[in-house]
Amino acid sequence: MKITSKLLLSTTAFMLAGAIPAAAAWQPQKPIEFVATAGPGGGTDNLARAVQSIVTKYKLTDQPIVVVNKGGGSGAEGYVYGKASAGDPYKVIFGTSNAWQQPLVSKVAFNYTDLTPIAAMAQDEFLLWVKQDAPYKTAGDFLKAAAATEFKMGGAQSKDTDEVLTRMIEKAARVKFTYIPFKSGAEAAVQLAGGHIDAHVNNPSESLGQWRGSTQRPLCAFSPKRLPQGPKVTATEGWSDVPTCVEQGLAISQYEQPRTVWLPGKVSPEQAAFYVDLMKKVQATPEWKDYIEKTSQVDTFLTGATLDSFIKQDLEHVKQVAGEQGWLLK
Amino acid sequence: MENLQSLLHGFTIAVTVPHLTLMVIGVLLGILVGVLPGLGAPNGVSLLLPLTFGMQPVSAIILLSSMYWGALFGGSVTSILFNIPGEPSSVATTFDGYPMARDGRPTTALATAFGSAAFGALVGVILITFLASWVAQVALAFGPPEYFAVYFLAFASFVGMGGAAPIKTVVALAIGFAIAAIGIDTVSGSVRLNMGIDELVKGVSFVVAVMGLFGIGELLIAVEEEFQARAVSSRVDWKEVFRALGRLPRHSIALLRSAAIGCWMGITPGGPTAASFMSYGIAKRFSRNGARFGSGEAEGIIAPETADHAAGTSALLPMLSLGIPGSATAAVMMGGLMIWGLNPGPMLFVDQKDFVWGLIASMYVGNIVAVALVLLTVPVFAALMRIPFAVIAPLIVIICVVGAYSVSNSYLDVVLMLGFGVVGYLFKKLHYPLAPLVLAIVIGDKAEDAFRQAMLMSKGSLGIFFANRLVTTLVLAGIALLLLPLVLQIVRLLRKPDEAAHEKVRII
């Protein structure tokens, strides 16, 4: 079934190829592959599929789009694939900040400089979560208790965003956590609901169901201002009711995970420009707004120099934490 | 009885013409992806997902879950006919299903598999219907030490129950653990055992391993043993389908035991793979025909199939009520739920009654539709066995190569798959069991993660495995199974003089 449809697609692609005038800016001439650097069902996969459905719905390109998952090795599989496809403008890689964070701490065979950055399209926020029946009302209470006994903090993966944030909290509040890495934030959320760990720093969408189901609640958000007001999550509270961590005396004013889009290296500026433009068009649709709201992310669009400086800044920051923890590769 | 009322309400949603049509379409597509190499349920459901965005959530989930049932049934077809398991959970079905099919009884093998699978699924759904809230609580009790204890129990049941010499089982397990360790390590975040090959960072896919071990390995053996055309003369016999189903009640103890193991492993997040392996191992030990397992014994098909489907079905409950997907397919469906604007979690049962109970009702109806459709296809699939070996052998090679390549469009996987073929051949030749190797490849890294997470929590003390009743019971049961062969041997030694005397009498 797959093979026939691919054949059909390429035949259509072949016929269309003759029809498009060569004088216009670069246009794709064959099917495009969206590579999600995560397994099916995760946040990165959802983004790739959301963009795919919007592009298809509004016919933003004539070419068909196929989403493939290459989530092995915490996403390294997808980035290595992108590196190996240098010069191929028909592979679009969807990832997170681990594109530049992972090469710092693990011996993976890629670096973000092997890829062409297109855009950062959405930012996932982080919150500090505890079990529903935990005695702490504020982040201050929690940290006071954490100073007395060593708490177990869960998170997705090791030496990745969740652990970096955990170590930042340790430093800011002068406490010590035992960090326990799980495969995903969803797994950490279930472990918290079962009382096997004391806290985690999940993104809103990873723990939304549990908050609504009264098994865990957020203490504070690692954001400079309160999260945008959406529909109420529980009967009485919504995201905008969660205080910022700074309000509660935990001095980490901003920590976000950007969802990033890349092309392989060595593509032409015209090819990169086509995809920047494509993502901009996607972002202007009501379906995109809907996706952002449903996944409780923050809409953002960084590209070009702003994206470069964002990456550099984040990289410096992670390098510092990783250096202090002794994670950096020698 | 509130649940029963909700269920009846659910039936009014599920049993409507559009939804029944969706079920038939879903099941047929599912059988197709289950039978086609390298597709499988998770891929099939991902491909279908974008089509559901415009649908009502309940219609969408009915379509996707029907596809899942179809794919589960379809996956057993290739396990039985070609010794190529499509999903990790149908590996155990090959042990007796394939020999039975080779023996000229493909119709019996398929019908037995489908019948017992349907029974397992039914028990799973009934469990969900009546114990939804209780079951959700059980899953919450599972932290890292409990997870490890469940995996330990699955491994131990193989050492204690497997047919091969325990030491060979341990060797096979150890090799499996080493293969499972390839790639990024969750706990330390570092790359392990990639032997300088950048692509190995993704780890070794289960599909690649089993296609080689079973598909190619078996082929090499077959080629060596008899290089002549080896067609199985199977009659296409409708009556045999019903006869095989009629024989199922004779194995009611095996059915019930396997369903119980399946449900238990589905709720406690051991999953369908561990369930089918454990059920097979235990059936082998306790069945009267235990010695004949591996040569085409009906109970050897019933045990893994019933447990697999009971676990696969009951594993949807933790996904809905807690947001823990029990399998790759469940993970894709969970992604779907989010896109449809639903959030899995305890509140789903309160806020989205129509969705939840519509889905549960559709599980009853969908499984009936699925089993009816697959039974209809039995004679067609069984006829495939009449194709001469000289034709089918190259086809199997093509299936395996395409299947391995399509996992992540990589030639490395094809090479690995062929390498596993050689390993499979050597294992067979040297009488090492393949099942523990596969089990370790599939759940080895999960077991390792759980163990190390537990060690982090306890700061290195093994006491955490005896910290509460649940985990203590699991660990002790595992140790007991592990020691079983040793104890049996001692008992035999003690009774030997006596037995030897008997033997003598008989010989005379």
TrEMBL record, chain A:
> Which SUPFAM superfamilies has this protein been placed in?
Periplasmic binding protein-like II
Q: Which residues form the signal peptide?
A: 1-24
Query: Mind telling me which residue stretches traverse the membrane in this protein?
Result: none
Tell me which domain of life the UniProt entry assigns to the organism this sequence originates from. Bacteria
Does this UniProt record's set of keywords contain Signal? yes
The family database entries (Pfam families) matched by this protein are listed as: TctC
Concerning InterPro entries, the annotation shows: BUG, Bug_dom1
Tell me the keywords, alphabetical order. Answer: Signal
Family per similarity comment: Belongs to the UPF0065 (bug) family.
> Which PANTHER family does the annotation name?
BLR4371 PROTEIN (PTHR42928:SF1), TRICARBOXYLATE-BINDING PROTEIN (PTHR42928)
This protein is called: Tricarboxylate transporter
Protein's organism: Bradyrhizobium valentinum
From TrEMBL, chain B:
Question: Pfam families attached here?
Answer: TctA
Q: Where is the DUF112 domain?
A: 20-439
Q: What keywords appear on the UniProt entry?
A: Membrane, Transmembrane, Transmembrane helix
- Residues spanning the membrane: 20-40, 109-136, 148-165, 170-191, 203-223, 322-343, 355-376, 383-405, 462-488
**Could you tell me which PANTHER family the record lists for this protein?**
BLR4373 PROTEIN, TRICARBOXYLIC TRANSPORT PROTEIN
Protein name, UniProt field: Tricarboxylate transporter
